[in-house]
Specification:
- The structure holds 2 protein chains of 2 kinds.
- By secondary structure, chain A is mainly beta.
- Helices cover 10% and strands 39% of the residues of chain A.
- Chain A has 1 helix and 5 strands, in the order ββαβββ.
- A 5-stranded mixed β-sheet of chain A has the order 2-1-5-3-4, with no helix packed on it.
- In chain A, strand 3 and strand 4 form a beta hairpin.
- Chain A is globular and about 40 Å long.
- Chain A starts with a strand and ends with a strand.
- Chain B is built from 9 helices and 10 strands.
- Chain B has a 5-stranded parallel β-sheet with strand order 5-4-3-10-9. In chain B, strands 6-7-8 form a 3-stranded parallel β-sheet, with helices on one face.
- In chain B, strand 6, helix 4 and strand 7 form a beta-alpha-beta unit.
- In chain B, helix 1 packs parallel to helix 9, helix 5 packs parallel to helix 6 and helix 7 runs parallel beside helix 9.
- The longest helix of chain B has 21 residues.
- The N and C termini of chain B lie far apart (41 Å).
- Classes of the chains: A mainly beta, B alpha/beta.
């Protein structure tokens, strides 16, 4: 098992989990989001290729109302 | 009559009113207010997804980004680094190149930090962004932003959310006169007549959020702003009458009984 930070919260994942699988687990795979993996933006096309490892930091953002 | 076209970064807009989507009671109210305002561009913010509450409604369900232009902003960013990070994420999300930059310098006044703002504008323009920039009403700094490639100059009328209206008409007028890119008043407008004044002065557009969202009847206020902006623009284009110090009668003197 590996521990990562997802939007500032500690989340435990199975080893060899991809970003795509993580999004699926949190039901975010169909939503319009953008992802930063250890401060580097991950293009949508790479979600299935990108594996997560212990202590990774993931930020998943979307659009909300704002002025 | 010649058609009055409003273009920002080669995007043609029908309305000179741009509205923010924050502070509303619900997304439903946001969507209704946007519709009533007639705006075809809305500002939006980038924030973390709430991973625990999956059923929470999302903005895109209420405002279709295919029908209305989303203008991602950097509200809440206090450094150039944060602002750049936010806009790069926004671009990744939907390919948005047209963005609104605001780098704040002080929590109490939300006054823009112009040193960081100028720095960020330069970087964003280099990366291919079209940047509409929230800024102070200093004509020299506004000119510098334009030189750096800003797509629109967006000086504050007064502090964000204050509703104090245009506090420095002289500075805003100087900015309007010197700018070759659109000048859009951003922040501080309190009520519909403030927007009319801005438009009569020759501003190319206004951006409103709090004045609509914080009104007792936001949807009606959205309509008021739509009309106020149209009235102000028409008035500006019509050219106002001269001011006189003495009265001149409106009815003819000839034929008086």
């Amino acid at each position: 098992m590996a521990k990562i930070q997802l939007n500032g919260k500690k989340v435990t994942i199975k080893p060899k989990t991809t970003i795509y699988e993580l999004l699926k687990r949190f039901k975010l795979n169909n939503k319009k989001v953008a992802i930063e993996h250890n401060k580097i933006i991950v293009p949508r096309a790479s979600y299935k290729k990108k594996y997560l490892k212990n202590n990774d930091k993931l930020e998943v953002v979307h659009f909300i109302g704002g002025g | 009559m010649k058609k009055d076209i409003f273009k920002v970064a080669n995007k043609r807009l029908k309305s000179r009113l741009i509205v923010g989507t924050g502070k509303y009671k619900s997304f439903k109210e946001t969507a209704q207010a946007v519709k009533e305002s007639g705006a075809d561009m809305v500002t939006i913010a980038v924030r973390r997804v709430n991973i625990l509450d999956k059923k929470k409604p999302i903005l895109t369900d209420y405002l279709n980004p295919k029908k209305i232009i989303y203008l991602p902003n950097t509200a809440g960013c206090f450094t150039s680094e944060d602002a750049l990070r936010t806009l790069r994420l926004a671009r990744e999300m939907g390919g948005w190149k047209l963005v609104k930059l605001e780098v704040l310098g002080d929590k109490k006044t939300l006054y823009p930090n112009m040193v960081e703002t100028l720095k960020s504008t330069k970087v964003l323009v280099k990366e291919g962004f079209k940047v509409m920039v929230y800024c102070t009403d200093d004509p020299l700094l506004a000119k510098k932003l334009e030189d750096y490639g800003a797509s629109a100059i967006m000086p504050l009328a007064s502090p964000i959310g204050s509703g104090l209206g245009i506090q420095s008409k002289v500075n805003i007028s100087l900015i309007i006169k010197q700018s070759k890119v659109p000048v859009i008043i951003d922040a501080g407008i309190g009520t519909a007549s403030d927007a009319t004044i801005a438009m009569e002065m020759g501003c190319d557009g206004v951006l409103i959020n709090s004045a609509i969202a914080n009104a007792k009847k936001p949807i009606m206020m959205a309509r008021a702003f739509k009309n106020a902006v149209i009235a102000g623009r028409d008035s500006y284009l019509s050219g106002r009458m001269k001011k006189n110090y003495f009265a001149t009668p409106s009815s003819p003197i000839d034929g008086l009984i």
